[in-house]
Design brief:
The chain is mostly beta strands.
């Protein structure tokens, strides 16, 4: 659930996004709450393609939504070193042409 104002027992979360190509967004969560991206995009009327649990009217693949983590950066918990992991988007996202 997403609330405009603080609610009892609600946890603050935020993200930023920018439009890349067509309806494709680059999303950068500021916090990491479960289903955060799905819930926040649905709350602004932009549910993820295929995510009918959060209001999508358009399908994607069976049992899948059109959400992909193409780049993750984090500090290795043992060494403390910065780690960057990248994965190309699926071909049907239309980015790899």
């Amino acid at each position: 659930m997403v609330f405009e104002r603080q609610q009892k027992n609600a946890v603050f979360c935020s993200l930023s996004y920018r439009s890349l190509k067509g309806r494709l967004l680059e999303i950068s969560p500021d916090t990491g709450k479960f289903h955060q991206i799905r819930a926040q995009l649905a709350a602004i009327g932009c549910p993820i393609t295929g995510d009918n649990a959060y209001g999508a009217q358009t399908g994607y693949r069976p049992n899948a939504i059109m959400l992909h983590a193409w780049k993750l950066e984090f500090n290795d918990p043992l060494s403390g070193e910065r780690v960057l992991v990248e994965a190309p988007a699926p071909e049907d996202f239309g980015l790899n042409a």
